[in-house]
Amino acid sequence: MDVVWLKRDVRLHDHGPLAEICKSNNPFMVLYIYEPDQLAEHSVHGSHIHFVNEGLIEMDLKLAEYCGIFSDDHPTPTQAAPPQRDDDGGKEDGSLGGCVTQPSDSDYSGARFRALTVAYGEATAVLAALHRQRPVRRLLAHMETGHLASYARDRRVRRWCREGKEGEVEGGTGGVRFVEFNHSGVTRRLKSRDAFSTNLEAFLAAPQHPSAELLAGGAGG
Question: In this protein, which residues make up the domain named Photolyase/cryptochrome alpha/beta (predicted)?
Answer without folding.
Answer: 1-186
